[in-house]
Amino acid sequence: MNGDIGPVKDTASGQQPDIVETLNALQHWDGGVPDTDIFYGLSDMDEHRVERFVPVWQELPPARRAGLLHHLTEASESNVDLNYRAPGMLALEDPVAAVRKAAIELLWEDETRELLQKLLLLTQMDQALSVRSEAAGALGRFALAAELGKLDRVQGAAVKEALIDLWQNRREDFELRRRALESLANSSDVVVPEAIEEAWQSEDVDLRASALYAMGRSCDQRWEEIVLDALRTDDPAMRYEAVRASGELEIIAAVPVLGEMLEDQDVEICEAAIQALGEIGGSRALSLLEKLATVAEDDSDENRLEAVEEALENASSANLDLNFGLEN
Questions:
Q1: Residue 87 contacts by C-beta under 8 Å, 6 or more apart in sequence?
Q2: Contact at 8 Å (CB) between 229 and 255?
Q3: Cα dihedral sign for 201, 211, 145, 39?
Q4: What superfamily does domain 222-328 belong to in CATH?
């Protein structure tokens, strides 16, 4: 669906669609891709529009509510001018777990105190594991904000404490613990290396994949050898996370293997390899990306060409000529 949202009505005046038109479209929505009245009418809602929206929202079946939030999430990812904070915050209180989970996903850019407090409560109090796990994952951006000094000390401490408690509580489900670990990796807290090591030594494949994810987010070079070895693993999920981590850690020695992965049958791994090469940079990575750009252009593969061009832009300014030891 991304990129298919039509232009807003009354573009000359810059006005939203009338709330009556938006709600009428919503009431008659069949669950497919919403029309522009819905996409633009639900963006940047003021208090009056929210009041009109609530009863219509509540009348939608649970699956339709969750589906709408997923469509709005895709729209907000492809159009930065769309802001669905109002329906997202409303949906956090929904009685249906799938809707609450979708609401957290919709609020992927929100870094307000109000959302932080709700996420902290959801990780501890929500009855649905899926919601608690999603909330724990969303706390990752707040952990990063605290690390960068963009969150006050008290709030930052509350985020780290919540994530550490979730990780260290072995009575909690693995899914919740691993999402907490992934978020905690944005912090330089002293417990992080030990937590990553423990997760890596686990027999649970998903937890080991989360350990690789955390290695990349930690920006800690101690994990380079483990990540390099994991690039050759047979498990797709672990290989994918190893590719991502190699880019985030800017592991120059990973470039040859990433080059091989540009032809991987797994599309997600191939795309991750493109991004990783852009993050690592250097002449070898540039050469590989330039060759792939030529192939993508010859094949008229616009999506891949766009991804490669973005990676080339990153690679041209990252670690230039630092990988001379890898040249043939």
A1: 42, 45, 53, 57, 68, 69, 72, 103, 106
A2: no
A3: negative
A4: Leucine-rich Repeat Variant (1.25.10.10)
